[in-house]
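hi! just following up on the protien thing from before. the input was this:
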Amino acid sequence: MTEYWLISAPGDKTCQQTWEAMNNLTSKQNSLSSNFKFHIPDLKVGTLDQLVGLSDDLGKLDTFVEQVTRKVATYLGEVLEDQRDKLHENLMANNSDLPSYITRFQWDMAKYPIKQSLRNIADIISKQVGQIDADLKTKSTTYNNLKGSLQNLEKKQTGSLLTRNLADLVKKEHFILDSEYLSTLLVIVPKSAIPEWHAVYEKLTDMIVPRSTQLISQDQEYGLFTVTLFKKVVEEFKLHAREKKFIVRDFTYNEEELAAGKNEITKLVTDKKKQFGPLVRWLKVNFSECFCAWIHVKALRVFVESVLRYGLPVNFQAILLQPNKKSSKRLRDVLNQLYAHLDSSATSGGNAQSGNQDSVEIPGLGFGQNDYYPYVYYKINVDMVDNKV
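and the predicted 3d structure came back as:
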């Protein structure tokens, strides 16, 4: 699992000092994590009331955008089918692999202009990802229906003789065609009953053409036989055949219909191939859009939460940490000690409220005790392959 911790701490005299203190303690001295500066531009702060309202909404937006991102990734895996092992290399963000994108994060000024209010930027992301989610539903339904139709037809080509399409097994010469009086039936006979079939088929009714049966095909369980008889005894023959557990398949030899059936499979295979390329491209492009939007939401959350916690003027350093294997608990302890002065209640097991006079106390932010630390913290898991939505 590729997990990152996105945190922020208030600037000391300079943000560089904040970075160096944290990096020295966690990375250089103790080798607990790999650390990266996380660049957030100078966003418009707005009023305190706006920030409080936005904080809650950004939490919901974060969840929504992550869900859609994972949905697109999961569906790309389904569409790739037997090439699913290539899913990882197809999940890119802005032409970079996901760890590179997140560790070298640059705010996209063109998509999310920083002159806009924070609320407007959140709305832009919400609309953008909402549209991708709606388009994904439409595209996946169309493609899944096509895939389902093809699978059903393929099952009919490969199933048991009881259920499969017989068109590709029979030939014109197996049938008496265009006769006023005679008809050829196709009969499915259990393998164990084939000797009995040969012994009794001529006696099941009157008016059966002697020695007219012919084995056309067999699978593991059944044999497919023809029998020719007078049309007037067909219903009686079916009845007596059923008593012996011989099953007459409804089948009329019609070359045009048989050709149409074969053409339908060919058409569906062609349609699926035609849709596959554009669909994969759309999924790759929109996975990138969603993932980039998601990391921008994380940046917005860090900005809003940092201003609410650490106050104005805006002075904090956002940092991305990648915990080293088996170091998470130790890393958490080191960070809690480093930033304990920001909020004593967060580390002393008291209520999750701010003990720093300069910070703003915000009731009802919805943090569970386990989620709250004296510094701003969000977890980012960029492993999109194994996580189901």
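The two ends are 15 Å apart (CA to CA).
The longest helix spans residues 255-310.
cheers
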